[in-house]
# Entry
Amino acid sequence: GPAWAPAQPAAPEAAQAASGADANPAVMPSSGGPAEPPAAAEVEPGRDAVALARALDERLTVWRSRRRRVYVAHCRHARVGCRARIVAFSRVLSVAGRRHGVDPFLLAAMAMKETGFNPFAAGGIGERGLVQLHPRGVGSHVRFVRNESYRAYCSRRDDACQGEVVDAGARLLASATRTCGGIPEALGRYNSGHCQVTRYSTRVLEERQRLLRMAKADVRADLAAFVD
# Structure
């Protein structure tokens, strides 16, 4: 669905999301007052990037045997290789999450529901990127959304130039969470423009739980493949 920011903010919802990391996943708690997010150059992927890479490796696998793993078509046909793309996306999600105080697993769940992690998926009204930015909303300032020749160039990069896309989506979700007062309502606003709990909200939160379960699986040998 489209990611957009209405000109007039919707009224905050009365209900607040439950406390706790799993129940209230989007905006991470701060120990002090509001602070400016770090500059892009200062943010590095967190340790969660490795766990997220493992989860995505499992999630994007359609079949495997003891010696072979087959990924979804768009990933296995990527010029750079599927595993390289998964690692790059995991780092992008971790960086955007740390910069804007948003759970990277929630961002990953949004990307899964929006595009199945196909960075070149296009929405019905021109939405682009992993988290489907609206071309007349926040996407109007994102080069990947606006420029077709740039997207062709991005197909040769591990990260498919998704840093700016995911960063814009994370910033929009963080803003929606402050406006709406809860994670499910913020997800509804991200998708529809209004603070409300929607089917999209439920599906994204369910997907987040699925990714977390995959990340926690005892797969230390495979996990080592994602460590530099």
User: Anything to note?
Assistant: Strands lie at 61-64, 69-71. The radius of gyration is 17 Å. The first helix runs from residue 48 to 59.
